[in-house]
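Title: Prediction job returns without error message
Component: structure pipeline
Severity: low
Priority: P3
Assignee: unassigned

Description:
Job completed but the reporter wants confirmation the result is attached to the right record. Sequence as submitted:
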Amino acid sequence: MVLVGSYAVTLNTTVIGVALPTMAADLGSGGGLDIDWVVTGFLLGVVTVLPATGWMADRWGRSTVYRWGLSAFASCTVGCVVAPTVDSLVAIRFVQGLAGGILIPVGMTIIYEVFPPHRRGLAMGIWGIGIAAAPAAGPPLGGWLITAAGWRWLFVVMFLLAAIAAAAAAVLLPASTERRPRPLDAIGWTLASVAVVTGVFVAREAGSLGLASPPIVVLASVSAGSFITFVRRSRNRPDALIDLLMFRHRGFLVVLAVTAPLSVTQFARLNFLPVELQVVRDLSARDAGVVLAPGALGVAVAMPIAGWLVDRTGPRLPSVAGLGIVTVTMLALGTLDPGVSEWSIAGILVVQGVGTALAYVPTTVGAMSTVEPDQAAAASAMQNLDRQLTGALGVALLSAVLVSRVGAVTPSDVGPGPAQDAYNVVFLIAAAVAAVGTMLAARLPRGTNS
């Protein structure tokens, strides 16, 4: 059941990139938000709820919260099917992100508690196969549905998957038994949410509005002030939304530092490469999905190998190797020209998928292995918050780069050459970020998990 729920959320994230050009053409630009906010809005919902997932799991139990998240996720998908405008779709996607943000960290904690320490790497690797299957199936399935029936059918399929998973979870998941009720730091949650939402908006819109424009200056000040206030009031509070004592563990800090660049590169590939294939190479959504699918298969094949390596060598070796591979393949994506064949791009993505898997498993296991056992749920939520927040910021900043160069994330009035150059800049920035991640990964623990 944990695999099914994680699959639904990941499919929902990875399939949207293929649909953005079609959504933009269908919904138009009459609203106030650009089409890339369909992705960013979902990520904002995820990062808004993530700080509270540890409290939810402790208050009502992991299984109960997991079932609630699945049901809410399925319900929100119906709203996406009937959304009439970009703005309404973004709003529904934000709420859907609130539900989806619960599933992966709580599901990871359930897996972590079931398996002993020496089996956790392998368990996370097997779980990762399910996560990787979503990107593998998402682009070709999404491309076929968009071409044959329209983008709204993506959400019909997602609803069916989530509804089946919710019904099965209600029957198969055991009732929650371990609970540690504690007060909710509602003020802290509000401060964290304001800091995140305003910070992502600033990252996305600063390029078009101007760094010195009054809206950007005000929102940046609000974001910084909310974050500083959140940290100060959380230091000595027994009911703090996020247990800041986790950050006393050096290993945990390094894991978060490595997770961030890996997340930026993943979201860059998932959200911008499908659009590039359609805009620059004039591929249909279906054909773009076919080009993207082999990369996710590379992830799926390498996930159990990565888990095996983590159990035997510790997190450093696979992380350094994985992020090194991601860096090189991002450089390859950043130096493409319109004449490069689609099969060459697919080959690059297969290699990148292997690198992503090698780096992903060590950070997933390490987030919970470097803290105290009673902090595992909060550490899982924090690591996922790190992943989703940096992904949201990365998408926002890279979208701003595209808009500054070609006027839109899905430009329709520029030639293949200028559009290719713009997307190349995006992937070169992602390559630089991955290179930083490789250096940080060298500071992960050398030994095996205990």
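Comment from assignee: result matches the submitted record. The mean pLDDT is 82.
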